[in-house]
Amino acid sequence: MQSTVRHLTIAVVAVAATLLTSSAVWAQGRGGDPNLPPSGPTPRAADGHPDLTGNWQPNAIRQNVDMIGAGVEVPMLPEARAIYDKRKAALGREDPEARCLPPGVPRMSTTPYPWSFIQTPKEIVIVYEGGAHVWRKDGRSHDPKVEQTWLGDSIGHWEGDSLVVETVGQNDITWIDAAGIPHSTDMKVTERITRTDFGHMEIVHTIEDSKTFSRPWTFTTKPTLLKGELIEYICQENNKDVEHLVGK
Q1: In 3-state terms, what secondary structure has residue 83?
Q2: How are beta strands 123-128 and 8-14 bridged, if at all?
Q3: Chain segment 121-135, per-residue pLDDT in tens
Q4: CB–CB of 142/149 below 8 Å?
Q5: Integer Cα distance of 202 and 194 in angstroms
């Protein structure tokens, strides 16, 4: 399949209920253990592209908690390393996500909460169970006057069987992991999303931020199709984590 350069609208929304029936989607897979994600052929949309539709489990808790501890090489510049060391020494006490703030990109893909892909020929929507009820949406190109937001400004296009999503314009409040990897407002995140078969997905994340890192770096997550549904998640109404974050 030749690459398609037409950009898609990428909309990301965090809501309290699922829009898909995961059990019905799961049942479309063929063969294998019924308790494991189905491994049948990758489904395709009417336009020939892989259909990403479904509820997905991130399976990336190690990267979410401690990216470096999970074996990822993160080339931080000295100033960024000092910030990181201070945060980690305090046991992540000031982690914004612990205060019900949005995780940002790429951390939205590593939190333990599942998400749904909803795909049409003109746009793709990602609905998150977690987060703080926020979204990102744009059209065919990045806004040259993009403001700093929690999830930034995202556009996507197909390269063969992979959906490539580029995100810019995020604020610098979010952490890349719970250990405290920082970033600046110049950070660009590229997610290369590939549905490798019916029940398995691979997302290669590339981080570019010359103010924080000496070179671009990558990490990979491998979500699987979720058999269950997304459930209601309300952090803001009853957040009991903060009082237990004693840190150092």
Answers
A1: helix
A2: parallel
A3: 888 888 888 875 554
A4: no
A5: 5
Q: Is 244 helix (H, G, I), strand (E, B) or coil?
A: helix
Query: 223: helix, coil or strand?
Result: coil
Instruction: Indicate the burial class of 198 (C-beta count within 10 angstroms; 0-12, 13-18, 19 or more).
Output: buried
Residue 224 has pLDDT above 50, yes or no: yes
Q: Indicate the residue type of 176.
A: I
pLDDT digits (tens, 9 = 90+) for 155-177: 889 999 999 999 999 999 999 99
Written as six digits, the tokens of 130 are 């977690």
Tokens for 53?
């539709």
How far apart are the C-alpha atoms of 185 and 147, rounded to whole Å?
10
Closest CA to 202 of 213, 191, 211: 191
For residues 133 and 153, the answer to whether their CB atoms sit within 8 Å is no
pTM: 0.86
145 class by beta-carbon count within 10 Å (0-12 exposed, 13-18 middle, 19+ buried): exposed
3-state class (DSSP) for residue 108: helix
Residue 24 has pLDDT above 60, yes or no: yes
Amino acid identity of 63? Q
What tokens were used for 11? 């909309």
Residue 99 and residue 26: Cα distance in Å, rounded?
34
Distance CA 229, CA 129 (A): 10
Q: Give CA–CA dist 78/58, Å, rounded.
A: 31
Q: For residue 248, give Cα distances in angstroms to 14, 67, 68, 193, 245.
A: 32, 21, 21, 38, 9
Tokens 């549904």 locate to 229
Q: Which residues make Cβ contacts (< 8 Å) with residue 231, sequence separation at least 6? A: 17, 18, 129
